[in-house]
Automatic annotation (TrEMBL), chains A, B:
Keywords: Proteasome. It comes from Maliponia aquimaris. InterPro entries: Ntn_hydrolases_N, Proteasome_sua/b, UCP009120_prtse. Coiled coil: none annotated. It comes from the Bacteria. It holds the Pfam family Proteasome. One of its GO terms (cellular component) is proteasome core complex. This is Proteasome subunit beta. SUPFAM superfamilies: N-terminal nucleophile aminohydrolases (Ntn hydrolases). GO terms for biological process: proteolysis involved in protein catabolic process.
Length: 250, 250
């Protein structure tokens, strides 16, 4: 399993991914699931991956190879004129990889499916965020649905739904995401630290702060432990069942 | 889908269930999923059901019929000498019903599976709580795992894990459960109010408070709206990413 979130804020895009992959519960490893490409002043692209690791690595490798030799090969993600075209390129690559593995060779017990979050900005356009399905189609985030989750989305969703605000600062968004990731990690063994993140500032067209938060990171520990206490206090602040309800102020 | 929780507290057992059933998203109805049997001074039994509605209704009806004519028919849940025997009876009934539907007649697209939570107390023994699987086996709650969820368990789990305490009062437990149910309802259309509950007091051997909370119940509305604000405050109380961390007090 996996847990990744891509989020649109007024001040930019925030990405976070866990790094645990598993082939059964008795076989877990750490792999990065976030990849960022940059052409300074022209474009910054970040991809988050959930699903079959061979599939997502193949997608990233294909995009990467073409990007490195982008004068020779087409289509390259450095040549796409818009984020929409970029999403189509990535989606087509994903569908091709899945099809290639599905049509030929050994049959596997599991399907080769994967789901991706693609976000970034190209000079001349706004930042955009897409959720790409294994079928090769995709949807775009907007003001109604300003963030996407992939993988084990359920445990960490309620806090995102309640506390997301487009005006969040990067520092507040990181806190929110770490609470969401902590809730997920506490409930699902197949999601685990360290967590990779990228904070992209709107219109900067350079990579923002990119980093990795380890399980024993002091800030993450503070959040993880503090959140339990904060939740209990939040619960305490509400009236108990059967108590006199506060009257609405007129 | 469904969401039900059975919980052991020092002062008794707490049960809550939603009432939404659906055969597709375009066909939803309201059905109670909680059933309580009582023989005052001797035993109180509550059953929560998730899964195929025909299956769970058949299980309840069979148990109910035998219970009503329990002098004539065996085995009846009013004659079981212990909660363990009770769990075996219910589990056997569940397995029989599933098997009967699976072996004969039309094939359905969906399986006939169901999962049950059984809790209660019989004179001479302590309150006990069981989770019964469609295969007809079951597990019992203990101090390590003092509550069971069935149905759509994920959205509402983080708050239970964080805030459960065996010393909770019934009033606090109801608040906790309504927060958990609210988080689930907000994320999954196939879980919905009204919510049925039963608060059984340890060693009372009579039905406790039984009731139903409607969507527009003023208390539920207070919790639902208050929880969003309380969560934001909880989040605000934690240090933002990159901030100076509070030093642990020596």
């Amino acid at each position: 399993m996996t847990y990744c979130v891509g989020m649109m804020l007024d001040r930019g895009l925030v990405f976070m991914s866990d790094t645990r992959t598993n082939a059964g519960l008795d076989n877990i490893s750490t792999f990065g699931k976030m990849k960022t490409w940059e052409a300074e002043g022209d474009r910054v692209i970040t991809l988050l991956c959930a699903g079959n690791l061979a599939t997502t690595q193949a997608v990233v490798s294909e995009l990467d190879e073409r990007a490195k030799a982008h004068r020779d090969r087409n289509p390259s993600l450095f040549e796409m004129p818009s984020m929409y075209q970029m999403a189509r390129l990535v989606a087509d690559t994903l569908r091709d990889v899945i099809q290639r593995n599905s049509d030929t060779g050994q049959r596997a017990d599991s399907v080769f499916n994967a789901t991706l979050i693609l976000g970034g900005q190209i000079a001349g356009g706004p930042p955009r965020l897409f959720l790409i399905y294994p079928e090769g189609n995709f949807i775009e985030a907007g003001s109604d649905t300003p963030f996407f989750q992939i993988g084990e989305i359920k445990y960490g969703r309620p806090i995102l739904v309640r506390a997301y605000d487009p005006a969040l600062s990067f520092e507040e968004a990181m806190k929110l995401l770490l609470v969401s990731f902590d809730s997920t990690v506490k409930a699902n063994l197949t999601v685990g630290a360290p967590f990779d993140f990228h904070l992209y500032t709107v219109d900067s067209l350079v990579r923002g702060q990119i980093g990795r938060i380890e399980q024993d990171d002091p800030y993450f520990q503070t959040i993880s432990q503090g959140w339990g206490d904060a939740l209990k206090q939040a619960l305490d602040s509400l009236p108990a069942f059967g108590a006199e309800l506060p009257q609405p102020t007129p």
